[in-house]
Design a protein that fits this description.
Helices cover 61% and strands 15% of the residues. The chain is α+β, with helices and mostly antiparallel strands. It has one domain. A 4-stranded antiparallel sheet has the order 1-2-3-4. Strand 1 and strand 2 (40-47) form a beta hairpin.
């Protein structure tokens, strides 16, 4: 993909992430929320750790690590994108947008805003946000591309 299209897609994804988080912060106090239907709530939580609320109270360290990883991904992707399949390109765009969306929260708010709350059969999934979803979907697509990619040269040239 051309770099302008890539930048536009990543910007649109980050904007959607930030707008949903801003809406949650304006509608709900931290710790409050609303049941949408059985198995799904909208809540307002702040996460100073990493995925699944692990390593809480490490926002500064997480911001530095996330920033370094995001920078490495952006530089690597910019150098290699012409050699990558479309699915791998989409994977990296999702992962980069997710990392940057959460990094914006860490820097500007001191915590990542999480708000999607799923539960079923006594199991409660940790709350997450759109940026987390982008990273998860991007990672899954990347793994699937490694497993199912027919053009093996793509992985060797990247």
């Amino acid at each position: 993909m051309k770099s302008r299209v890539t930048a536009l897609i990543i910007t649109a994804l980050i904007t959607a992430d930030q707008m949903t988080k801003m809406a949650i912060r304006s509608l709900f106090d931290v710790g409050s929320g609303i049941a949408i239907f059985p198995g799904f709530n909208i809540v307002h939580l702040g996460n100073t750790g990493i995925a699944f609320s692990l390593l809480q109270n490490n926002n500064t360290v997480m911001a530095v690590v996330t920033g370094a990883i995001a920078l490495c991904l952006v530089v690597w992707y910019a150098r290699k994108r012409q050699f990558l399949s479309k699915i791998v390109s989409v994977s990296f765009m999702l992962i980069i947008a997710g990392a940057l969306g959460n990094l914006i929260d860490r820097i500007s708010l001191g915590a990542v805003t999480d708000f999607l709350d799923l539960y079923a059969y006594g199991y409660h999934w940790p709350a997450f946000n759109l940026a987390d979803s982008y990273i998860t979907i991007g990672g899954a697509l990347l793994i699937a591309s490694v497993i199912f990619e027919k053009d093996k040269n793509v992985s060797h040239s990247a």
